[in-house]
Amino acid sequence: MQELAIGFGLFLFLEGLLYAVFPGGVKRVAMEVPKIPESTLRNFGIIVMMIGVAVIWLVKGTG
């Protein structure tokens, strides 16, 4: 459970960093997202999740 809290904290840190360093870029991306088809967003989300799981698996190991 502690690792989940650390991961969530890291997520919040990185999200905040994006808004702090690239506020204009975040606004432009937010305006473009509604134009992207849902299937593309879904596929992108699935790919990013798979990359995240692979990174965790590589760092933590299998056992």
Could you characterize what this model shows?
This protein has about 60 residues and is mostly helical. It has one domain. It contains three helices and no strands. The longest helix is centred in the last third of the chain and has 23 residues. The relative contact order is 0.06.
- Separate helix tally: 3
What would you call the shape?
Answer: flat
Poorly predicted ranges: none
Structural class given helices, strands, pairing?
Answer: mainly alpha
| First-to-last CA distance | 17 Å
Helix content: over 70%
SS elements, strand count: 0
Oligomer kind:
single chain
User: Mean pLDDT, nearest integer?
Assistant: 93
List keywords for this structure.
63 residues, mainly alpha, 3 helices, 84% helix, flat
Question: SSE layout and pairings?
Answer:
Layout (H helix, E strand, L loop, with lengths): L1 H20 L1 H10 L5 H23 L3
Short description:
This protein is mainly alpha-helical and 63 residues long. It is 84% helix and 0% strand.
